[in-house]
Amino acid sequence: MSEENLPAVPPVPHKRRPRYGGKNPRRFEDKYKEHGGDAATIAKVIASGKTPVGTHRPILVAEILAALAPQPGEIAVDCTLGYGGHAQEILPKLLPGGKLLGLDQDPVELPKTEARLRSLGFDESVFIAHRSNFAGLPQALAAQDIAGADVILADLGVSSMQIDDPVRGFSVKHDGPLDMRMNPQRGQPASGLLQKIKPDVLASMLADFSDEPNAATLAPALAGKSFTTTRGLGDAIRAALPRLGKDDSDLTVRRVFQALRIAVNDEFSALDTLLRHLPAGLKPGGRVAILTFHSGEDRRVKKAFAEGRRNGFYSEISEEVIRPTAEERHSNPRSAPAKLRWARRAKL
Ligand SMILES: C[S@@+](CC[C@H](N)C(=O)[O-])C[C@H]1O[C@@H](n2cnc3c(N)ncnc32)[C@H](O)[C@@H]1O
């Protein structure tokens, strides 16, 4: 067929870039430069104290490396792999001869992180990604024939990728389905929990999980109600406490979201189980570091480490909690509530 006889190819329609009001995109979907890994945009976002979407900035990295002291040939377990920010720093210190087992319960982000770490050159002989709740640490170790780890890290809570993606339903700022499950394939979303819960149970949950001072007023306004979106819940919380100023109102919304997230993901019972399994999961002389983000978590870690020290499982524990420097808090405001504690398993 000559060229003239070829059917005319329709022109490719010009795709418009997303439009957003103002100088910088605010909506998750509009941040196409960050999603696309544009280096200049990402550097600008980080310099402004923010976290580029689809990433997570690891917290207290130097302090964690100092506490864990990973050595060549050692075995490390990152119980909360997330974006792999800490894992990426620990891995080179284990080489040659060592390996890192990365656990995470999130089936959405784990494959992306595995691919990212592989692209940095960490193959299956040095890095294993395993989808698991860290409460199943003994089973995860057994599945890899690991009798004990030299180094264990847990960086509790949710990652920036999870918070920033409105579809995951953690976001106070951006509207999305009221879900909040780190593993969306298990359990019930926050919307289902709120619909079924009794006011007195919700009141205790808000008080116990986020020290909410207005729990008694909020619980009857929220329990048994049907909220399908994060914005709908946020509006109902504000409406239940109309006399609060904007800052207090914002803080209340955050506390209610935190309490719901802890409940939906059964976070305290997973942490208690991990703390119970830690001494047996560590080799003699092994080190563990745990990063917490609110008092309910820190109290548990502090108590478990102190008990372990008293009964001889741990030979040494951090005397004081380690916090981000003013500089880190300024450059990454999400680090502000972080508290680090560590323990060393006794040699005998
Ligand atoms: C704060 S992020 C970790 C970030 C990571 N340290 C980094 O530098 O990228 C917490 C991660 O732990 C996971 N996670 C939270 N609780 C978990 C649990 N009980 N079992 C397994 N993974 C959990 C979350 O899905 C999330 O990916």
Structure description:
- The protein is of the alpha/beta class and 348 residues long.
- It folds into two domains: 72-160 and 267-345, Vaccinia Virus protein VP39 (Rossmann fold); 184-264, DNA polymerase, domain 1 (Orthogonal Bundle), CATH 1.10.150.
- The chain has 15 helices and seven strands.
- It has helices at residues 32-35, 39-47, 61-68, 85-94, 110-119, 137-143, 160-164, 190-196, 199-210, 215-222, 230-240, 246-264, 267-281, 295-310, 326-331; strands at 75-78, 99-104, 127-131, 149-155, 282-292, 314-317, 339-345.
- Strands 3-2-1-4-5-7-6 form a seven-stranded mixed beta sheet, sandwiched between helices.
- Helix 5 links the parallel strand 2 (99-104) and strand 3 (127-131).
- Helix 10 crosses helix 11.
- The relative contact order is 0.12.
- The mean pLDDT is 91.
- It binds S-adenosylmethionine.
Tell me the CATH superfamily of the largest domain. Vaccinia Virus protein VP39
Mean pLDDT: 91
Spell out which ligands are present: S-adenosylmethionine
Provide the number of structural domains.
Answer: 2
**What structural category do the secondary elements indicate?**
alpha/beta
Instruction: From the 3D structure, determine the CATH topology of the largest domain.
Output: Rossmann fold
- The CATH class assignment of the largest domain is Alpha Beta
Strands of the biggest beta sheet: in what spatial order? 3-2-1-4-5-7-6
What's the total helix number? Answer: 15
Low-confidence stretches: none
Biggest sheet descriptor: 7 strands, mixed
Give the topology string: H per helix, E per strand: HHHEHEHEHEHHHHHHHEHEHE
Q: What is the second-level CATH architecture of the largest domain?
A: 3-Layer(aba) Sandwich
Strand content: 5-15%
Termini distance?
83 Å
Helix content: 40-55%
The gyration radius over C-alpha positions equals: 23 Å
